[in-house]
Amino acid sequence: MTATVGEYDVAVVGAGTAGCYAAATLARAGYDAVVAERKSEQEAGHIACGDALKGASTFPEAIPKSRIEPAFTNTGVDHGRFEIPQLETEVDIPVPGELAVIDRWEYGRRLIGGAEDAGADFHYDTVVRDVIQKEGRVEGLRAVRAGDSLEYDVDLVVDAAGALSILQDKTDFSGATFDTNVTYSQFCSAYREIVHVDEPVEWSDALVFKPTERAAGYLWYFPRTETEINAGLGFQMTEEPMQLVDDLKADLRGRPEFEGAEVEDKLGAALPTRRPYDSAVAPGFVAVGDAAGHVNPTTGGGIAGAAYAGTYAAEEAIEALDDGTVDEGALWEYNSRVMDHFGARYAALDVYNIFTTAYDVDDLMGLLAALPVRKLSEALYSGSTDLGWWLKAKTAVKSVGHWGTIYDLYQTKSVADRLLAHYEDYPDSPDGFDAWQADRDALMEEVYEITGADAKY
After folding, report:
1. Residue 353 near residue 62 (C-beta atoms within 8 A)
2. Considering only CA atoms, which of 322, 239, 321, 237 is closest in space to residue 273?
3. Chain center to CA of 345
4. Distance of CA 419 to the CA centre of its chain
């Protein structure tokens, strides 16, 4: 027997960053929002993450910073450190803006508390199995809780269910613009442990990165505190599977600062390392956060994008609901706002992600060591940077043996800049969408031709 659950305007699937900000925004505007979360109330918010949080001082106000700030465990981090074992060197790269390392589980609980403060309801232990869809429009959800079958009859579904969301497998998008050009190879598989050490680490002010033996993977060491480290490993799913746990443990054993360390928590996950979805809306349906590719594809950072995406989706949903329609045209401004704020930048950064898949890891690490550090930092976070002729000359002198790669990089940068401009000219309605996609695809063909990389999309 199936029971219909409550009287809700909007159902949000997933109690992560994007889902909580969406639910809080909707509830503050007077709409009845429910969050369906598959985990228990005790486990909700426990998500595999690198724990690095950037730019929280400017996060949306639906959940005030004061609500989540107690989860910030290290606010002294100001740079990234790239270890290059092939060259027995390290490269320190400044990170612009506010940066903190957090206790992700505590942060998750505080997000949920903030959304509850705003008036959102949370249904835990609720596994969503399907959508309810009529004549192309999503009108609700089918779920199971404690063995009971449930239906949510709502005006709008917000998909915040994370990478490779099941909702997108269950929804028929054949008549919509919603991006279905999504495959597992555009994602990263990751695993992390929270490790305690007896003595403070010397690099507690840095996010430490180290390449794996294959260019499509890297290890990270992010200090929550001087003695509590988030240690993890991820790899692009274009590669043969890595033994994540074994590879991480092998590296930990080779680092003297982790001798005798104790492991407190272990968790794995998948995350998108791709461009944002071309369109994340369909009639009665909108995707946010990881479920829409809202992650920096070069760093894996997704918390900030998720916070804004959830807020933007909810704000556009409020206008659409007020107007009595939730079709694509009514929700379209959400796409535009995402592209304008961070989506264009992430799409340009994905070009560099593609670039790395086409080159040997030793060549890339040698090139990394030769590049101007501050300019590289700008590129990692902005999607583009201006390398003047003097810097180019100095780089060329330092990078003897890598000139072919650096020439390809400059060519790739030129296309990435044009792609950034193209995304900044995202269509203001579904009418111009097909033409915009065709022009974007032509730019991507140039990327593949320059790099020799396999097509990603």
Report:
1. no
2. 237
3. 13
4. 20
User: Distance of CA 77 to CAs 207, 301, 334, Å?
Assistant: 7, 15, 33
**DSSP assignment, residue 115?**
H
CB-based contact 93:373 (threshold 8 Å) = yes
Q: What is the pLDDT along the chain (457 residues), one digit of tens a residue?
A: 688 887 899 999 999 999 999 999 999 999 999 999 999 999 999 999 999 998 888 899 999 999 999 999 999 999 999 888 877 888 888 887 889 999 999 999 999 999 999 999 999 999 999 999 999 999 999 999 999 999 999 999 999 999 999 999 999 999 999 999 999 889 999 999 999 999 999 999 999 999 887 656 889 999 999 999 999 998 888 776 667 788 899 999 999 999 999 999 999 999 999 999 999 999 999 999 999 999 999 888 999 999 999 999 999 999 999 999 999 999 999 999 999 999 999 999 999 889 888 876 666 666 666 666 555 555 555 556 555 544 454 455 455 455 567 777 778 889 999 999 999 999 999 999 999 999 999 999 999 999 999 999 9
- Which residue is associated with the tokens 């997704």? 302
- Joined together, the tokens standing for residue 405 give 């790669």
Pick left, alpha or beta for residue 260 (phi over 0 → left; psi -120 to 50 → alpha; otherwise beta): left
In this prediction the pTM is: 0.92
Question: Helix, strand, or coil here: 111?
Answer: helix
Residue-by-residue DSSP string for 309-373: HHHHHHHHHHHHHHHT--SHHHHHHHHHHHIIIIIHHHHHHHHHHHHHTTS-HHHHHHHHHHS-H
The dihedral region occupied by 318, where left means phi > 0, alpha psi between -120 and 50, and beta the remainder, is: alpha
The CB-side HSE value for 248 (13 A sphere, CA atoms) comes to 23
Q: At residue 212, what is the residue type?
A: T
Read off the tokens for 248: 């991480």
